Amino acid sequence: MLSAEEPTTTIGTTHNIATSLTPTAPGPKLTRPQKCYLCHTLIANSKSICSQCRAVVYCSRDCQISDWKSGGPRIENGRPVYFTPHKVICPKLKQWMEREKENVLLREYFPWLKGTGGGGQPFPLVETLRESGVEVEGTGREKGYWNVTAHVCSHELSFRQLVEKKRRELLEDGRDGGEAEKIVEKEVGVYQPGLMLLGEQFPGDEAWGLEEGLFPHLPDSDGIKAVPNPLDGTLIASWQQYYEWRNIPPRSIAVMLLHMPLTIYRMVTKFPHLLADTSEPLNIHLLGPERELDIVPLFAELLFLLPHHNINITMIGPTAFKLRQSLREMETAKPALLTKYPLFTYTHPTTPSRKINIHIDTTTEFYQNHPTFTNPSPSTHPSIVCALNAGLSTYPTWPEILTHCLTQQIPFACTEYCEQSVEYYYGRVIIPVLNEHNQKARGRRMGLDDVRTEFNAFRQPGAKGNEFTRCPDHVDGFLTWFWSGP
Ligand SMILES: [Zn+2]
Ligand SMILES: [Zn+2]
């Protein structure tokens, strides 16, 4: 459990700056540029690292000393921003760095993760895909499930960063704005999640781009051996258990996509009452889908992980909505997957009454306009509302959705990249939302202890690469969940 309050432990005094700073110890060799924690200067090789937390690096000893004693204020975007002195937050960062031990276990299991280092060094996904024989060049759709823009992975460098970089280079090269724009579009391509849905049918196993045996094949007739039984508490609890159950060797990189359905599985199992009631289908509202739209058939895995339920997933969010616009703009009105309803269905090979249906709601850009939101009733409530890499303190629409889930007693779960984001979300979003809920609570009043967080066992392995700290930072990294029900 994280506290939303500022950590009050002060281990630093002027006296022990000397022990905190290790002038003789050079900073870590950085495999890519990181930013000085104080002045945000991009540095290729750090001059100083905090020897206590080992989470932050500095461009100079001056920056390190100044940050230790007094932190901010600094001017950012013309406004003063105040930062906590490092001596105050250092113990918390040190605690967060402890999580790296769990990443060591993953690196021991997956041979292709070895050598990628810990401490926030980003995992070179594109290189690993290439070494595994997965096609990463191209414009998108032909790459099957690995739909990432040519030369780039959205998890390493954001599309926006890539476009900005290319545009800057062209302008420096003397091109005019319009010309630069055209080249950017042609060379960088436009990464739009869900391009597959504008096609006529889902691809088969070839969309994995991996050799047979390295991905979980969906059986046509045979069941899957030793099905986990969530009803008696048999849960798949780690990547190793999952790979062994599905008979996938550790050298497979399938985990780099499977974190999405497996994280949903983890979310559902946080609410035992959902598992206990096998008479009702599991209706999952998955908000803000992006990468999820590229791997729709892989969610069928949930049917084997949760074998006692019929499952309906409804994906709702701006990207799905924009895809609908793309479909309208397409010159030839070909039949597209996007218009299918449900979009995707998979029937259990040995129990035909068990099905998973995936729907995409393309009528609503924002969840707040969804009929179950505007006209809530217990009979139409989803079983759970969830979101992957939600950015709870980034997007202004979340507080309203969280309040809705609390007042309607709908279980909510989401993931965030790093623990800093979770901490930030506790302070800025969850406390006001809890207060608002408690003011009008007819059901149970909620405290911070009701909001739980864990390092997600089904996070995407390999660091995402945070510019500011070396703390664990992963796609689907930290899972947070709550329920205001009895
Ligand atoms: Zn600096
Ligand atoms: Zn420190």
UniProtKB/TrEMBL annotation:
It holds the Pfam family zf-MYND. PANTHER family: MYND-TYPE DOMAIN-CONTAINING PROTEIN, ZINC ION BINDING PROTEIN. InterPro entries: Mss51-like_C (IPR046824), Znf_MYND (IPR002893). Residues 36-90 form the MYND-type domain. Keywords: Metal-binding, Zinc, Zinc-finger. This is MYND-type domain-containing protein. Residues 8-19 have a biased composition (Low complexity). GO terms for molecular function: zinc ion binding. It comes from the Eukaryota. The lineage of its organism: Eukaryota, Fungi, Fungi incertae sedis, Chytridiomycota, Chytridiomycota incertae sedis. Residues 1-26 are annotated as: Disordered. It comes from Rhizophlyctis rosea.
